Amino acid sequence: MSPQRRLQRYAVPSVAALAVAIGLVGAMHLKAARPVLAMLGVPCPVDQTTAEQVSALRASGLAHLRADRSAPARPVPGGFVLDGTTAEEAARWAHENGIACDDVKHGYSYLRCRGVDANKLGLAGPPVSELWLSFGPAGRLIGIDVYRRGMTASDTTAAWNDATDALRNALGMPTSAVGDASPQALSGSPLQTARLQYRFADYLAIVTASNLPYAGLAVREQYMSARL
To answer: Which domain of life is it from (predicted)?
Structure first.
């Protein structure tokens, strides 16, 4: 089996399954994800996804991500509530704040918003390139994905520090932290990455800073319900 075939066999299911498992199918449609899928020769993995398939993959993925104890808090930006905020409430929030969003359906329902003022989410740093709100079969929020790309060094630092400091203040030390998120380290070479994770029985949070050849300096925040 060629190296490319092995990469397709193992990397593609891992990337697609993780995105689906955490309830953020729409994240695979981010501009930054398309070159990865294209390099692997993979068509969009979620166009024909059903709600049942999303639920099954999400359960499978969470089985590998969840920890034993519950989170002391489940912080998310924007004043939303995981497993509480409805799709209708989120759409009303967007309308009241003058935020243009699209309804997206890929098995589950998603609200995709672009160019969102970070202040409207209670965040520091530059505008959000793409915001995805993911809703489970019951129509309640199960995930938030905040993605910013093409940032300056100072904006990257502001976005990273704001997200990670808020999580540390609410939850203490992370479950894991790898890499150097300073712009100097990230800019050292393409694909440099730093990541901080919190894993609980009912909550997952991941903050990733990276230097992407097609998107520049980027910070992605993911906040997810781990309840089934």
So the answer is: Bacteria
